[in-house]
Amino acid sequence: MPQTSLMMTLQFSSSGTPVNVQAKHFLIPGLGRYDNKYSPKLPSKFPKASIFNSHQIPNPILHQPPVNQSVAAIVFGDGSESRLYPLTKRRSEGAIPIASNYRLIDAVVSNCINSNINKIYALTQFNSTSLNSHLSRAYSGASLGKEGFVEVIAAYQSPEDQGWFQGTADAIRRCLWVLEEYPVAEFLVLPGHHLYKMDYQKVIESHRNRKSDITIVASNGITKRDQDPGVGVLKINTENQVMQYSLKSNKEPVNYAVAETLTRCNDSSYSYIPSMGIYLINRATMVNLLNNHFPKAMDFGTEVIRGALSLGMKVEAYLFEGYWEDMRSIEAFYQANMECIKKLNTGYKLVLYLPMEA
């Protein structure tokens, strides 16, 4: 049975377990114990992440092929939207502080590290100075195993591309020359300002078992998105195959239904669930879609995903049951931050394996 000692635990549950920030070791689930004694020293306000490589752990539990060699994460740390303004007046969404010592993007990077994904690219553009500084300093001493890294790719201009990134799809397309440096099999596309705890290995396992071209993670939990215009809505069948991708508007309410209650929808054969904006896509599929089928697409969800569906590609939904907050308003951010600090009851427990110096 895996041990449970942690360097830092942020409680979102009613158990009232105190936050432990003094422990001298922490554990990677299913992998083992890491003693912080010999880890690089960083300033106290910067978290650092540590993970073992295969030479340091007896009997490691790894997927075939190993996830840390076959999957790379693409994290979007910012956006041009002003829904969290004035918090984003001088910094991007991913750089907004939460739980005192952390930034929103740390939760997503922590999920990657603890899912054994050690190739992490952070694409940044708007108000990115604070975020770029945080990522480069906080994770520069991280032990991410052989060929592991957290690399910032800032928006750039070139003779071929004289404008800035025009959207998520455009950003990925223009960075493919960097993203294809390693022979990974899949790319995991992630928003960098959402708050949740997820084992991405389960998403990868489902994706490979179902032989999908694209897997979209959707919220099947208690989090409500009925009042959120602009959220992506997936129409899925009883096999969790995505039939349609659309954006919720103010004029068209969506009758969401969890997978177990499909009959609540107007059409009993389908369910409508909110997309979390998380995409696992085969490398060859992504390159083909971005360069050949939709070379001018700007947005990954509304253009590339819809385009993949129109081409008849196999797009599946992975249903996530846990807590998820996508920070679509100042109120949502405030509530999440207060719950994190005061350990109020939300039915959610977030664990960050990002040790802080005592």
From TrEMBL:
Pfam families documented for this protein: NTP_transferase
GO molecular function, one term: glucose-1-phosphate adenylyltransferase activity
Gene Ontology biological process terms from the UniProt entry: glycogen biosynthetic process
Alphabetized UniProt keyword annotations: ATP-binding, Nucleotide-binding
Highest taxon of source: Eukaryota
Coiled coil feature spans: none
PROSITE patterns to which the protein is assigned, alphabetical: ADP_GLC_PYROPHOSPH_2
UniProt keyword annotation of Repressor present: no
UniProt record similarity statement: Belongs to the bacterial/plant glucose-1-phosphate adenylyltransferase family.
Subunit and interaction comment: Heterotetramer.
Protein name: Nucleotidyl transferase domain-containing protein
Species, as recorded: Gossypium klotzschianum
